[in-house]
Amino acid sequence: MWKWLHPYAKAERAYQLCNTLLPYFAVITLVCLVIGWVWGLAYAPADYQQKDSYRIIFIHVPSAILSMGAYSSMAIAAIIALVWQIRNAELAVISIAPVGAAMTAIALLTGAAWGKPMWGAWWVWDARLTSELILLFLYFGVLSLYHAFEDKKSAGRAACILAVVGVINLPIIHFSVEWWNTLHQGSTITKFDTSAIDPSMLWPLLINIVAFAGFVGLVTLIRLKNEIIQHEKHRPWVRELVGRGE
Amino acid sequence: MQFESFSEFLAMGGYGFYVWLSFGSCSAILLAIFISSLRDGYKLRDEVRAQMRREERIKQAKQQEQV
Amino acid sequence: MNPRRKKRLLTVVAIVFGVGSAIGLMLYALQENINLFYTPSELINGKGESHEKPFIGQKLRIGGMVVPGTVERDEDSLDVSFKLADTGPTVTIRYHGILPDLFREGQGIVAQGTLVETNVIEAFEVLAKHDEEYMPPEVAEALKGIKHEKPKYNLGNEN
Questions:
Q1: Rounded Cα distance, C64 and C50, in Å
Q2: Are residues C52 and C114 part of one domain?
Q3: Structure confidence by residue, pLDDT tens digits, A44-56
């Protein structure tokens, strides 16, 4: 596997890989997002308890899952960057962070708009909500650390270390609903076997999760391309590429 | 289709405000980060191009000096 | 101090502050959730191994099921009272205000308020807790034999 992966440590090859993958992600995101939203908003049946307000689930759960998924990918990239000293992995960390922050913000906002009519409060200091808020701060921390240093080498190292340390928060978010007495209910989607959600609602939810995953991938690739150009802008291959108008 | 009419669809059984607030803010955030990422890319490429032109001019000026 | 060092120092301070406030928030959430959280039987019989009971006038949170048939609404105000239970004794909750849409008999709720008598709480906040199950009404009726109706307010101006 390493032999196969090794060429992508080179910036030019990584850039080309981004270009190859981009259209697939774009198509998957667009198709799934349209189907998922139309299905979720107009065709999925209303919930027996929460009526139509539960439709927020179709963006709340995907964004919450992806806020954690993006963080784990970012942390894996950070470990690779720290241990193998691969510059591209460091650039990946910086490319994922803003997208992950956006997902976290969406999860928090949609959660508030769902909590107000159902629970009776926009926000409660519940373990699930608090740990998700801390996730947002972690993303901001990684980004501001990277941009605070003039010397990009130490900037990258500092950002990566924070990204890795922050992984502790992920199990806390996931198990918060079991460890503490939270107002937030347990996970719906991990309980496939007990069918916590009716299939007529599960399918549009899964499609939306794919759509959000595609979106995270798509924007990460766009940002990664930008970061590679930024770092290699004096290299001939970038000049040739930009000169061609790509 | 779960809704009889478009106005019923907008009302979301009385939860319209919350549902559309969520979907609205979600689309705004998704669009904002997507567009800003693309624009960063265009700006960066323009910068590189400008730099290349500047270097070209410097090179030409130096050649003229030598002549 | 040169500007680069100054910037770096500021960053470090910002991060220490950020991590500090994050831990603070977490502790705050935990304190709210654990120390002050009671179930109705814990409230009456005492909590933990030492059977610690809350004192009158203490601010606390209580979670339990709304006992069916105990919800009493005042005819011409938003005052409402109901009984809360888990496995044993019941506790009376008094509340003034609009209840969340999910509030109904048999529903799990979390109330925050002051203990006014050993088994009466004057709540200033009532939050409804729901489970992670989602299904269409027909399925719910077939599966659980329950039909959920939105609670009716005595006041005509609920919206």
A1: 22
A2: yes
A3: 888 888 888 899 9
